[in-house]
């Protein structure tokens, strides 16, 4: 069964990007706190950061 693609709100993306600019790798505690603040799951935040780092590497 295929999962549906998650779309994040512009507010969520703004906060995620802001955090990413400060630190590209989050600790488990920071990830949980950010997920709770943005009403996202821990895994969603983890995957977003993984994908964002990958995107950054491809730009270089």
UniProtKB/TrEMBL annotation:
InterPro entries registered for this protein in UniProt: HD, Homeobox_NK-like, Homeodomain-like_sf
Start and end residues of each Homeobox domain: 1-59
GO biological process terms on file: cell differentiation
Gene Ontology cellular component terms for the protein in this record: nucleus
UniProt cross-references to PROSITE patterns, sorted A to Z: HOMEOBOX_2
Keywords: DNA-binding, Homeobox, Nucleus
Alphabetized SMART domains for the sequence: HOX
SUPFAM superfamilies: Homeodomain-like (SSF46689)
Residue range(s) of DNA binding per entry: 3-60
Database matches in Gene3D superfamilies: Homeodomain-like (1.10.10.60)
GO molecular function, one term: DNA-binding transcription factor activity, RNA polymerase II-specific
Compartments it resides in: Nucleus
CDD domains: homeodomain
UniProt name for this protein: ANTP class homeobox transcription factor ANTP65
Organism of derivation: Mnemiopsis leidyi (Sea walnut)
């Amino acid at each position: 069964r295929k999962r549906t693609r998650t779309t994040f709100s512009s507010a969520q993306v703004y906060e995620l990007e802001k955090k990413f600019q400060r630190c590209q790798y989050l600790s488990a505690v920071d990830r949980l706190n950010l997920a709770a603040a943005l009403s996202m799951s821990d895994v969603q935040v983890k995957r977003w950061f993984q994908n964002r780092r990958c995107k950054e590497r491809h730009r270089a």
